[in-house]
Amino acid sequence: MAKSKFEYVRSFETDDTCLRNCYIVVRLDGRNFHKFAEQHNFTKPNDDRALGLMARSARSIMEDLEDIAIAYGQSDEFSFVFKRSTNWFKRRGSKLMTHVASQFSSSYVFYWKEYFGEQPLLYPPGFDGRVVLYPTNRNLKDYLSWRQADCHVNNLYNTAFWTLVQKGGLSTTQAEERLNGTLSGDKNEMLFSEFNINYNNESPLHRKGTALIWEKVDETLTKTVSLPKEGEKEVTFTRSRRKVTALNCDLIGDSFWEEHPDILEEDG
Ligand code: DGT
Ligand code: MG
Ligand code: MG
Ligand code: MG
Ligand code: MG
User: Fold this and answer.
1) Closest ligand to the CA of 27
2) Which residues have CB under 6 Å of ligand 1?
């Protein structure tokens, strides 16, 4: 077909190809979830239904989109790490980011009822997205460590804060004043000596967030085959399949990376 005279407008599109060899990280964050959490009666400081729904939506991203090596989420955010060698959507940043954001949002709504039951979704939630490139394995590990350290700092604060309010009978203003200027050691000590709470025994989901990785699982299947001489026969065979697995473990130390050497690709 002959090109129309309007065709030239295509040349206004700008190139947003992500630099080769870099890990492409897409991070999503819930829009105004402070309000969303209040309006949907999220429990404080952590709502396991909300965290479960975030992880379920992230799993659908891993399963539906190509080449995600690991995803990590906490609170109202999730980061998706594309393999550094991915050529999905020709590494176009806007395509990658918008596919992740829109699929995540629709999954969040789609699976809402599985996690919140009869509690209605009051309005359509949104998620912002950004793309960041990391050129080395060290940078990528430090990125994930940064997000997990953020999870830890916020969760320790929130645990201390809501314990003072819910168990200590303080007002929210009093709890805020009480925690003003405290270091993490002080918060740990306060929880332990005043409320008999050992922070390290709190739920790993809340302290560590959720990492989603691919794991190989062997599954045994039975199939009925029809053979010319023997007729119908049952055969059993095993095949190995990739499956998304959720972990609530430490990503900051080396042991996670030693136990899962397939996640990262060699620095070039
Ligand atoms: P933004 O991201 O700038 O549009 O604004 P927000 O309000 O989403 O702020 P952000 O992302 O920095 O903080 C996440 C908010 O979500 C935070 O105010 C607490 C809320 N939130 C996340 N998870 C939970 C939860 O499990 N329980 C409760 N009660 N609130 C939660
Ligand atoms: Mg924010
Ligand atoms: Mg947010
Ligand atoms: Mg957030
Ligand atoms: Mg199209």
Assistant:
1) 4
2) 29-34, 37, 42, 44, 46-47, 50-51, 75-76
Residue 26 lies in a domain: yes
HSE-up (13 A, CA, CB side) for residue 192: 10
Q: In this predicted model, what pLDDT tens digit does every residue of 173-216 receive, in sequence order?
A: 999 999 999 999 999 999 999 999 999 999 999 999 999 999 99
Question: Does residue 215 lie within any of the structural domains?
Answer: no
- Cα–Cα distance, 23 to 163 (Å, whole number): 39
Q: Is residue 249 part of a domain?
A: no
Which domain range does residue 172 map to?
Answer: 17-210
Q: Report the CATH number at residue 88.
A: 3.30.70.3000
CA distance 37 to 44: 9
- In this predicted structure, which of 79-83, 139-143, 151-155, 226-230 has the lowest mean pLDDT? 226-230
H helices present in the chain, as ranges: 33-39, 48-64, 93-110, 112-116, 137-166, 172-179, 184-195, 204-208, 255-259
CA 190 to centroid of ligand 4, rounded, Å? 26
Domain-located, residue 39: yes
Secondary-structure breakdown of the chain: helix, strand, coil percentages, each rounded to the nearest 5:
45, 25, 30
User: ipTM score of the complex?
Assistant: 0.96
What's the gap in Å between 76 CA and the centre of ligand 4?
Answer: 5
Longest dimension (CA), the chain: 83
Q: Whose CA is nearest to atom 29 of ligand 1?
A: 44
Q: What share of the chain has pLDDT > 90, as a percent?
A: 90
For the chain, the domain total comes to 1
